[in-house]
Structures
1.
Amino acid sequence: MSGQVSNMHGATIQYIARQAILKSDLEVFAYELLYRDSENNAFPVGVSDELATGRMFFNSLMFIGVDRLTAGQLAFINLSDDSLLQELPNLLSPQKIVIEIVERSKDIPLLVESVSSLVKKGYRFALDDYDGDPKWQPLLELMQFVKLEVQEPIIKTTMMIKKLKRQYPQLHVVVERIETQEQYQYIQKAGADYFQGFFFSRPEMLNHGNVEPSKLVVLELLRSTAKKSLCFKEIQQRVSKDLSLTARLLKLANAKAGDERIEIKSISQAVVYLGEDAIRQFVKILALSKLGVDKPSELTRMGLARAKFVEAFLRPGGEEMADRGYLLGLMSILDVILEVEMSVIAAEFSLDASLSSALLDYQGLLGGALRLAIEIERNEWQEAERILQAIRPATPTDSLYDMANESRSYADEILEIVGEFEHDQAS
């Protein structure tokens, strides 16, 4: 994933940096994940904590996943006050993350209340850039980690380490911004537990392909979640129109499951599994991150048309089968958009055996329906008729033409609406 990404086929590139946090034997203990908006390896000027938090959660943590970003190590993640108070950490499993409370935090009593609630759910916290101010004392009681920056003269840092270890023996002290061998030796001798800084490694840039949701779908979701009672069917319908939201929702369902991996069979299953609170938080992150500036690509049009065709073809088998067909059609183009092997996608989204075999090897009725959609897409009608005879010979060939026309119209209609919306927003 690290290094330059090219030929993204209409996708945008998202950036994130990670910096190692080392144990005393200089083995990696964790990585701190840092928001970036370009190849410039620095926090972007003019970006608020809330916006950075939203973008990193939505584009990287929920889309790519913590394990892949940290190679299976623990992840330290900065959160702004607003994000923390909205309990956005609930969108990620607590096993693999440590939430850093930034030094700009202001409403300490409210933070204490939120942190206390999240600690009971198994989340771990670090107080970032601790400066010794007494205002932090109520939070220190709840922390598992405290982070210090190296100060000069170095004795200031070593005295702070010893004081913290004496007053809060449960705390693990992480010292960052270590730049020389001499600093490292003093800090290690003073009793620090973990070490971070340019002396060991600079932040490593990672980038990955990303497909942004349209503003129209985001606004529709915001309207849906603004209602007092959430309609899961409505959420499912909104999400199913957008490839990127489908991918993120499936990832989110698996993240919420933690170690208990679930088998995702449809968008509706993911929506119901997540529940009302997580869906509302998911949509809030969408709004925070202010994504969706690009018009959908032709690949998105293709994915929507495939999804609608497979759904229509499988509808005689019932609503659940049709839902699974729609999901299969959308996911069938993710390998091209993200430049990731389809086998990786099937594993990452925890697809059940029938969906995986359909996606990877065109097996079963689901796989046959997908192959049918692809051959019609290529205008290979003879091959399409041959597949039809093999998987469902009772279906009239003429009906394929109707389903193909309807699926293209469906995709065109959605993209036209989005295009009109974008034009109105620009003017």
2.
Amino acid sequence: MNTIALRTMAATALAVGTVLGATGMASADPVNNPKPTGPPWSPSADGLTWCFEGYCDNWDKLDNYVCTTAAPTALLCDVIMVGVRVLPPLNIGDLVPHHIIR
């Protein structure tokens, strides 16, 4: 692996860990939000993000709902999704405190 990829993975893991650690793991409740199955929603190339009219829902590689990029916490969602994409399949959706990060 090159150093840029390693630095990106380290920064992402740190950001995700900071967000999850600061909000507390005890409050992380799983959300059963099923993936859309087709139009009018359109998937990203990797199938982790589905969007419709600027509203995008995101799932981890194990199909657990993670967050929404149209929510007030969109920046946090984007950072978490970078981690989802660079890390191996992990159950990140169940770790996200959905009462804070929607």
3.
Amino acid sequence: MTTPYPTGSVPPPGCPAHRLYGPEADADPRGLYEKLRAEYGAVAPVLVPGDLPAWLVLGHRENLDVARTPSRFSRDPRRWRDMQEGKVPADHPLTPVAAWQPVCNFQDGTEHERLRGAVTEALERFDRRGIRRYVTRFAGQLIDRFVEAGRADLVRDFAEPLPMLVMTQLVGMPDSYGPRLVEAARDMIKGTETAVTSNAYVTEALEQLVARKRVVPGRDFTSWLLESSTTLTDAEIIEHLRLVLIAAFETTANLIANTLRMVLTDRRFRANLSGGHMTLPDALEQVLWDEPPLTTILGRWATGDTELGGHRIKAGDMLLLGLAAGNVDPEIRPDLTVPVHGNRSHLAFSGGPHECPGQDIGRAIADTGIDVLLSRVPDLELAVPEGELRVSASLMSRHLVSLPVVFTPKGRTVTASSPVPAQVPVQVPAPAQVPMQVPPAPAAPAAVPPAAAGHRRRARPSWWARLLGRG
């Protein structure tokens, strides 16, 4: 691999820009991307944790080239030369996301088609209206937990728990698993000291789920994977359930949080939304361009010596898809202030044969959840100066740490027979203690109480209401 410094060495003092980790990368990844773009063009040599060499793909066209040509850039990490040479030990920070697993996104060719076919076949069986009913139900329950207080942290209290609560229903788990899975998923992604324990919790929960669904199937993703004509093994089913849960959680939670932050803080958004020139789906797509839920995707591995963006890529080199960098490529977006309404050619969900198969479900969760929130609490205001909002960054994503808001306290609305559990035990219950059943059909959202409805009619329509077409 060609790098601007001797092979096997680290960047010289004063040149930390080549690292995709560390203080500078975490503090201002976009600034780092532009620095690399100015120096190297559409593809840049970088270092990932452990100072392992890689290529960051910065150009929009080059990202699509890599994503769409698995014959040149494989998704199978077993091709990674550094891993073959023993430079990626079991305790390496990248091992959890780079070690080969029996899932479709680590396969190419016919095996990829077999595994992905089972996933997409199961996902396509969902009724989109049914998904939105689940979202409405859980969003209402979450809002009920803070609506009387007049303040909330929309990351902790809404954006993070909502996707996992919905996904537990879609895979056929009891409601009580949702809150603990949110905690475990975030812990795994952060790679904390308890990440191994959290991973064990998720694994045991999924093993129990598959065992139960073999006996009592339902209309859910797990049962449909078990019915798949491709005959998946239990290990393959468990790994795909984990993949879907974690991917849906991280990406959708970030999408919800980023959209709420932008409509609360970005004057351009506020003006467009209040003026009726942008719908909520438009706002979501704009956020997918400007703040994609994943900043990079690890990774692709060169199947042979090749060229990309004017650089020589060696067989076994690792490449990172730069989703955030590609979305702001000056070649396709010379003016970032120009709205991109209706344009879905962003890289937020990658592309090619490994493009995210659940993106429409993620959009439905975010769109419906934010709709419910803004309808119930139309006078949201940021509780702290925008400059005090903190973002946590990692190699693959940036997420808002908190989004504190204030609003006029309101009454609760009964949204379902059983509220979201405030706490759940850390230990996974034994199979006999928690019978998994087919989830009941979600209740339709209850009407707004007369007093609240009357108050809303007397109030001046907010820009939130005009956004949702209710002004």
